[in-house]
Automatic annotation (TrEMBL):
One of its GO terms (biological process) is cell wall organization. It comes from the Bacteria. The lineage of its organism: Bacteria, Bacillati, Actinomycetota, Actinomycetes, Propionibacteriales. This is Peptidoglycan bridge formation glycyltransferase FemA/FemB family protein. InterPro entries: Acyl_CoA_acyltransferase (IPR016181), FEMABX (IPR003447), PG_Glycine_Bridge_Synth (IPR050644). It comes from Nocardioides seonyuensis. Pfam families: FemAB. Belongs to the FemABX family. Keywords: Acyltransferase, Cell shape, Cell wall biogenesis/degradation, Peptidoglycan synthesis, Transferase.
């Protein structure tokens, strides 16, 4: 276990089928308020695992929360996770960490779109966990069990959203069970009737979807700020997206793509997608309140899905959903929008903490509770 260079880290990520974009060395540039370190595991002198560690200092003391979002990138199928995690925690303790937080990129359960829709329609169902899954992952169950045995603690989840990254995501598989790529027609047929109708409606209305450049981030951000005001969330500043664009595309060409949907001369929707290896993510989206009838949001999503297929991606990831299936929940509209794509709901192992200094960790938890109350 040792600190590795940015180049070593980048080369290792490129050698894997995929890794979360939050575990690329470029992500450190997007989070300058955290101190960052790339760490690596070697076996017989060959790098076999890597992780991006973000370090946040406690006020007034030189002690840090060490955070590995959706990582590290190791062999999570290994039945002896302690062989990977014990050296990591020893290394970070020596760096002054009072606790380590990580989010294993390991699936525990899956539900088909039909199962999610049936759960929404069932008055007795209030949570996705109340619906029997289509798949339970043995690897996921083993990882969760070992983390408990090693002293890690799962983080509390409010309605499906963890303190950091979402535990429940919605994804569209772009390959069949045998690994062969799906066709555009096959993916389109998997969508519900409303989605297919809206894609056709957008095409008939003349909505055009194009790739944007760095210069188009200003227009994207104007629409994003408009969306934030309408949907009551706090927007990120434009500088955040400029930094993300430069950092991710500086690491690999077309890692981040800005998509723009225009109707005539009006920008009606805009999105950001990210791709690492065979995994493609829908990261941010914005839409205009005007001209919603031309279905710009459906048009831009469909173009991103088509691009993911063309690039050889195995998964198109629409990111987080809540676990709640309560029809009165304010997140239900988002869930129904994503379920209409015909993909599947996916539960990950979630985020886990290991306290290295228990008094400091308890003080940290108290600080977080006070800040959120």
């Amino acid at each position: 276990m040792r600190t590795i260079s940015t180049q070593e880290h980048r080369d290792f990520v490129e050698s894997r089928p995929w890794a979360s974009f939050l575990q690329t060395p470029a992500w450190a540039e997007v989070k300058p308020e955290w101190r960052a370190e790339s760490v690596g595991w070697s076996r017989d002198g060959v790098l076999c695992g890597a992780g991006l560690v973000l370090l946040r200092q406690l006020p007034k003391v030189k002690r840090y929360l060490a955070y590995l979002p959706e990582g590290p990138v190791i062999d999570w199928d290994d039945p002896d996770l302690g062989a990977w995690l014990t050296p990591l925690t020893a290394h970070l303790r020596a760096r002054g960490a009072f606790a380590v937080r990580m989010g294993p990129p390991v699936v525990t359960r899956r539900w088909s779109a039909e199962q999610v829709k049936a759960g929404i329609a069932d008055d007795s169902v209030r949570r996705l966990g109340d619906v029997p899954p289509s798949e339970r992952s043995q690897t996921g169950a083993r990882v969760v069990s070992q983390l408990h045995e090693l002293g890690w603690r799962p983080q509390a989840v409010e309605g499906g959203f963890a303190a950091g990254q979402p535990q429940f995501n919605f994804q569209i598989p772009l390959v069949d069970g045998d690994g062969s790529p799906r066709s555009e027609d096959d993916v389109l047929k998997g969508m519900n009737q409303l989605w297919r109708r809206n894609i056709k409606k957008a095409a008939k209305a003349g909505v055009e979807v194009t790739r944007g450049s760095h210069a188009d981030l200003a227009a994207f951000h104007d629409l994003y700020a408009h969306t934030a005001e309408r949907d009551h969330f706090t927007p990120r500043p434009r500088s955040y997206f400029e930094t993300m664009y430069d950092a991710l595309n500086g690491e690999a060409d077309d890692r981040l793509t800005l998509w723009l949907a225009h109707h005539e001369d009006d920008l009606v929707a805009a999105t950001i997608s990210i791709r690492v290896g065979t995994h493609s993510w829908y990261s941010y989206g914005a839409s205009s309140t005007e001209k919603r009838e031309v279905r710009g949001s459906n048009a831009v999503q469909w173009e991103m899905i088509r691009d993911a297929l063309r690039s050889g991606a195995h998964v198109y990831d629409l990111r987080g959903i809540t676990e709640t299936l309560d029809p009165d929940d304010p997140h239900m509209g988002l869930i129904q929008f994503k379920v209409g794509t015909g993909g599947e709901a996916v539960e990950y192992a979630g985020e886990w903490d290991l306290a290295l200094n228990k008094p400091l960790y308890k003080a940290f938890e108290l600080y977080l509770r006070r800040r959120s109350s």
